[in-house]
Specification:
The chain is of the alpha+beta class and 176 residues long. The chain has eight helices and five strands, in the order ααβββαββααααα. The strands form two sheets. Strands 1-2-3 form a three-stranded antiparallel β-sheet. The chain has a two-stranded parallel sheet with strand order 4-5.
Length: 176
């Protein structure tokens, strides 16, 4: 069962928060050494909101580089999840590469907090090769940040990668 499935099935929110903290720690432990003190993962739900309002985000040197917002996903796509992630929520099709806005790492609402949470859960339970080859851009992004992926492997991934979010994280990884 996914961690979001656990919550939907009536799991205790305190347990779900504890689960996120463990997932976050596992993601951080897997970061490449040059990113450990610079990159962080965050997730929140907003008190007094309906159940789906919340977001996840990634920071680099304390600056937010990417945002996964449930509200934006709903506003832009009238869904709660990207089809490539495999949640049980209402989904939308992936963004066509030809329709991307130049300069954006991710289209507004392309991925939600649910997508990030589910992908993080999947990532810690996948082998690195499956994550790299996944159609899910979040899994590929987490993979390029992982210490098990070397610089030569990053170069090979960069050649075939099309998603700007993943390409940007490759650049951050290779920066230092």
């Amino acid at each position: 069962m996914s961690w979001w499935g656990y919550i939907k099935a009536g799991g205790n929110i305190k347990t779900a928060i504890m689960i996120w903290s463990k997932i976050r720690k596992e993601l951080h432990d897997r970061l490449a050494d040059n990113l450990k003190s610079r990159l962080n993962y965050h997730m929140t739900s907003y008190k007094n909101s309906t159940g789906y309002i919340g977001r996840a985000w990634i920071t680099y040197d304390g600056v937010e580089v990417i945002n996964f917002s449930n509200l934006e996903t709903w506003s832009e796509f009238k869904s709660l999840s990207n089809l490539t992630v495999g949640t049980n929520y209402s989904t939308h099709s992936p963004v066509d590469e030809s329709k991307r806005t130049e300069g954006l790492l991710m289209e507004k609402g392309e991925f939600s907090k649910y997508d990030f949470g589910e992908s993080a859960w999947q990532f810690i339970n996948l082998d690195i090769e499956s994550a790299i080859e996944s159609e899910n851009a979040i899994l590929r992004a987490l993979a390029v940040l992982d210490r098990r992926v070397g610089i030569k492997r990053l170069e090979k991934i960069e050649i075939k990668e099309k998603h700007p979010f993943v390409l940007n994280l490759i650049k951050l990884r290779r920066k230092y």
